[in-house]
Amino acid sequence: MSATNYDLKKILEHWDNEAKNFQWHRSHQTTLEGDFTGDVKIKWFKEAQTNITLNAVDRHAKTTPQKTAIIFEANHPDTPAQEISYLELSTAVNRMASVYKNLGIKKGDVICFYMGMTPELVIGVLAAARIGAIHSVVFGGFSAQSLAGRIEDSGAVCLVTNDGAYRGEKIINLKDICDEALKNCPTIQNVIVHTHTKNAHQMLSGRDHYLHELLKNSDPQFPFEIMNAEDPLFILYTSGSTGKPKGLLHTTAGYMVHAAYSFREVFDFKENDIFWCTADLGWITGHTYTTYGPLLNGGTTLIFEGIPTFPNGERFWQVIEKHKVTHFYTAPTAIRSLEALGDELPQKYKMGSLKVLGSVGEPINEEAWEWFHLNVGKGNCPIVDTWWQTETGGIMISTLANKTECVPSFATYPLQGITPILVDNTGDELKESVNEGNLCIKYPWPSMARSIWGDHERFIQTYFTTYKGCYFTGDGAKRDQLNRYRITGRVDDVINVSGHRFGTAEIEDAIDEHHDVVESAVIGYPHPIKGQGIYAFVICHHKRSDTEVLEKEIRDMVTKVIGPIAKPDLIQFVDALPKTRSGKIMRRILRKIGENELGSLGDTSTLLDPDVVNRIIKGKKN
Ligand code: PRX
Q1: How far apart are CA 520 and CA 574, in angstroms?
Q2: What is the mean pLDDT of the chain?
Q3: Rounded CA gap, 83 and 446, in Å?
Q4: Model pTM?
Q5: Distance of CA 83 to the CA centre of its chain
Q6: Ligand 1 atom nearest 501 alpha carbon
Q7: Could you give the 3-state DSSP secondary structure of residue 229?
Q8: Which of 384, 389, 399 has most ligand 1 atoms within 8 Å of CB, for mutation?
Q9: How confident is the model at residue 2 (pLDDT cuts 50, 70, 90)?
Q10: CA angle 507, 508, 510 (to 5 degrees)
Q11: Hey, what long-range contacts does 44-47 have (CB within 8 A, 24 or more apart)?
């Protein structure tokens, strides 16, 4: 049978069965409505009503009130860990929900979060869901300008932040960054400040409120809002090939069903297990597998405020030993950076509690896979290589722990109910094993994004027009003779740096804001730790002799516009870029130069100035 001979009836039966695992205020009649043609209005479990906090918090607070829902491990190892039971979580979420209501926030309003990884972030997000407000978490490493852009686009009415966040030795003054951002955000009426680092900051009377003050007048039992299946749950911004980052919109019931199902299935999670996903809530992984997946399953989730290298490179292993973590889910970048510190570090710790390891966010190379397997899992733990995206909401293709075979660098098989196909560049489906195809999804799945916030047309254009009738992921993949998938990376102008996603155009726009820059072109190049590094080719108005200063200014500009995570690793000043006669930059050539594949530059005769390639190669930076 072909790998992609999917039976939609069976798929719907599967999702119907999964939906039975939840408490509903009203059940659904229609499993799925809509497809990937026309206006792509997808609805799952259309008539159903519930609230995700009923399923993630309330029901466990009733049945297992004393069970630990959240373990909080702070930035500094000397800070005592905090354990929050389901009953305590329920009370905290209820109180926070009432705080929002007291500020006049209502169903459908957007609440933006710009915080460090503290329990208050998880509680704040769940409380937003409880009152039917839409959460929009912005990673605390983005700049004021990025934050402002996301607030402006979402129309958020409330911003929740910390005074500051600990990140290793540093304190990031989050409130100051918020103040800067809010100069241009008239929609924000209230700012809620959770005091954490106690760094100096300003409070604007009437707009800014301390959380501890607001909590004095809060309700430990606050009823949840009854949500329709397709009511928005959250917006999460992510980068694409073109334009500004887009706010992917996820809705209530379908997201809930797939988050819970994929968590249980992929990780083989059992009742007393302790799950640690290292992702920050600013990313989709933090939403689905640090927060909703474990809590919907009544599990214990560990949240970690710090970084892997503070106070030293043993921190992760120490946390695993200390809390007897059973499931450890992280990104290949983290694995590679810890591998570089030597095999001795993980060996110093007792990590026998570990049962399952997971990888996410970028392709994992075989060497990192083997190191993870041997040095962290001691050869005993399956590694689930989970492929998915902000758009997919949950894991789509992955090994299932203890059920299917792990193959280094292969995500292997789709989850039940998920329908990947590979197509060639003309959109024809490739039926057999293939070395390279464009990865698409044939049928809708419950946790898929429903739209781009405020721009449904862009949603249709971005995902459903390249290959008609299916969702295009932007990734390339190989499928072997056993129908196992290996994700090879993006085939569009998106780069994946340390598991963080950027559009090359977005970084170019930031570089071009420097007054000396005429034009730039950015590509991803292979980087031993980050997976991809950022390589910028820059043309300036005048030759400046202080190139180091200029490089720093350009990096500072990117930090200001996007954030430090998007700073170029390599900057090469050039007098021209390889352009076609019609003025289009031939990135393919720049990518080959970045990859050091100078023998396969392809046809350069169509370039306006073919010699430009030789000049760029001469000044090459890697
Ligand atoms: O290129 C794929 C890569 O990360 C992209 C999605 O990025 P983002 O929306 O930020 O979500 C990351 C966390 C789910 C994908 O298009 N990617 C994600 N997981 C894998 C991966 N590439 C290879 N293997 C994976 N397991």
Answers
A1: 9
A2: 96
A3: 32
A4: 0.97
A5: 25
A6: 10
A7: coil
A8: 389
A9: low
A10: 65
A11: 44/15, 44/229, 44/230, 44/251, 44/253, 44/254, 44/257, 44/444, 44/446, 45/19, 45/229, 45/253, 45/254, 45/257, 45/446, 46/229, 46/230, 47/229
Centroid of ligand 1 to alpha carbon of 55 (angstroms):
27
Map out the domains of the chain with their CATH numbers.
8-452 (3.40.50.12780), 494-618 (3.30.300.30)
Q: How far is the CA of 475 from the centre of ligand 1 (A)?
A: 9
Q: Which residues contact 527 (CB under 8 A, 6 or more apart)?
A: 497, 533, 569
pLDDT in tens, 503-520: 999 999 999 999 999 999
**CA-CA-CA-CA torsion sign (145, 151, 157, 159):** negative
For 177, the enclosing helix (H) or strand (E) is: helix 174-182
Q: Give the mutation target among 139, 142, 362, 447 for probing the ligand 1 site: most ligand atoms within 8 A of CB.
A: 362
Residue 378 region by backbone torsions, left for phi larger than 0, else alpha for psi between -120 and 50, else beta: left
Residue 567 CA to residue 571 CA, distance in Å, equals 10
Verify whether ligand 1 is closer than 6 Å to residue 487 (CB atom): yes
Three-class secondary structure of residue 197 per DSSP: coil
φ, ψ at 509 (rounded to 5°): -60, -40
pLDDT at 1 over 60: no
- At 9 the pLDDT is 97
- pLDDT digit string, tens, across residues 244-268: 999 999 999 999 999 999 999 999 9
438 lines ligand 1 (CB under 6 A): no
Mean pLDDT of the region 73-100: 98
Task: Report which ligand 1 atom has the smallest distance to the Cα of 395.
Answer: 14
Report the phi/psi class of residue 133: left, alpha or beta, with left for phi > 0 and alpha for psi in -120 to 50: beta
Integer angstrom CA distances of residue 545 from 8, 162, 342, 550, 551: 64, 42, 40, 9, 11
Q: How confident is the model at residue 572 (pLDDT cuts 50, 70, 90)?
A: very high
Tell me the pLDDT tens digit for each residue of 294-324.
999 999 999 999 999 999 999 999 999 999 9
